[in-house]
């Protein structure tokens, strides 16, 4: 018995040591210190707000919750070794343009061109993805070498800027409910947005950038081909499915668990109160929907990353041949 206890204690010690090592590694990077410090600040502000009921810290919860992961990514991108032409200035411009100009232009276009219809989610997705692609196109004109990797990083930066401002908007909307101020709604919204941000706007715009930038080599405008068109339609489709996941989960829950009295209330124009089983099923269906869309985007990103690895291997094969060519003024 004592051996089992000692073994368990040793396992706990190893787990603690691993956690401490991981925290130390994070603190050794600037982006890691931002992530750790921001998470600690957000947790303290949330705990104090929930404990005291004081709403003065709500701006901290909303702003830190919305910007923590996006700013962490930009900090990593600005300090990476293979930075190339993507200077901190270009990356910060991309983040700000994606957050401010992207959300404003998309909201303006949606207000003027979209009306409630079954295709509303598709229209929103196309306009928002087009706004982010236009920002990518503008930023890419300042680059000479436009590689697939540059497109991934710059696209993710623009997407994170868009997602950060959108998350703050969702957080502000969650503050006020029909029953008054809701701190719980704010916290749940910020947690959800913080988890899904890397697999939503940042992921879709990274995919778009990886295809858009390479076809702009030596050009001020992209060469529109089948891959570029299909990529735009593909990320717009993922965006559409992501936005429609909530409604799809509602319909799925009603189809599986609908009761006669709920059907009669729906027919009379009333929204019946869901049962506990329906709430649990809806939550699970929504989670599965987000996970499937996110997994599809990550798989697509993995395909692009493997293409990048193949390009690197080809470059490594070409470099030795180039090195055999005599270099010097007499061979110029």
UniProtKB/TrEMBL annotation:
Q: Which domain of life is it from?
A: Bacteria
Which Pfam families does the entry mention?
A: PrsW-protease
Annotated InterPro entries: PrsW
UniProt keyword Transmembrane present = yes
Q: Where are the transmembrane segments?
A: 34-51, 57-78, 90-113, 119-140, 152-178, 277-303
Q: State the UniProt keywords alphabetically.
A: Membrane, Transmembrane, Transmembrane helix
- Sample GO molecular function, one term: peptidase activity
Entry-linked PANTHER family: PROTEASE PRSW
Name this polypeptide is given = RsiW-degrading membrane proteinase PrsW (M82 family)
């Amino acid at each position: 018995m004592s051996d089992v206890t000692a073994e368990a204690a040793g396992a706990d010690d190893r787990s603690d040591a691993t956690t401490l090592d991981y925290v130390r590694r994070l603190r050794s990077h600037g982006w890691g210190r931002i992530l750790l410090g921001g998470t600690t600040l957000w947790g303290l502000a949330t705990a104090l707000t929930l404990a005291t009921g004081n709403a003065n810290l709500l701006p901290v919860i909303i702003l830190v919750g919305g910007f923590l992961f996006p700013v962490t990514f930009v900090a990593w991108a600005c300090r990476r070794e293979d930075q190339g032409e993507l200077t901190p200035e270009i990356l910060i411009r991309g983040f700000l343009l994606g957050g401010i100009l992207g959300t404003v232009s998309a909201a303006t276009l949606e207000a003027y061109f979209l009306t409630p219809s079954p295709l509303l989610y598709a229209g929103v997705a196309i306009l928002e993805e087009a706004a982010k692609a236009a920002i990518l196109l503008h930023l890419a004109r300042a680059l000479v070498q436009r590689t697939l990797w540059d497109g991934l990083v710059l696209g993710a930066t623009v997407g994170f800027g868009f997602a950060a401002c959108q998350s703050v908007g969702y957080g502000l909307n969650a503050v006020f409910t029909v029953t008054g101020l809701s701190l719980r709604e704010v916290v749940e919204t910020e947690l959800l947005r913080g988890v899904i941000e890397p697999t939503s706007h940042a992921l879709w715009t990274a995919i778009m950038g990886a295809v858009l930038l390479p076809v702009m080599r030596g050009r001020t405008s992209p060469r529109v081909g089948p891959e570029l068109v299909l990529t735009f339609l593909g990320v717009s489709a993922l965006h559409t499915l992501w936005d429609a996941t909530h409604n799809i989960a509602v319909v799925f829950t009603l189809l599986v668990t609908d009761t006669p009295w709920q059907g009669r209330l729906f027919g009379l124009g009333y929204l019946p109160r869901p049962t506990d089983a329906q709430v649990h099923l809806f939550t699970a269906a929504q989670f599965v929907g987000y996970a499937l869309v996110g997994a599809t985007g990550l798989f697509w990103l993995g395909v692009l990353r493997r293409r990048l690895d193949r390009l690197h291997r080809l470059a490594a094969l070409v470099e030795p041949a180039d090195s055999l060519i005599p270099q010097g003024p007499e061979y110029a």
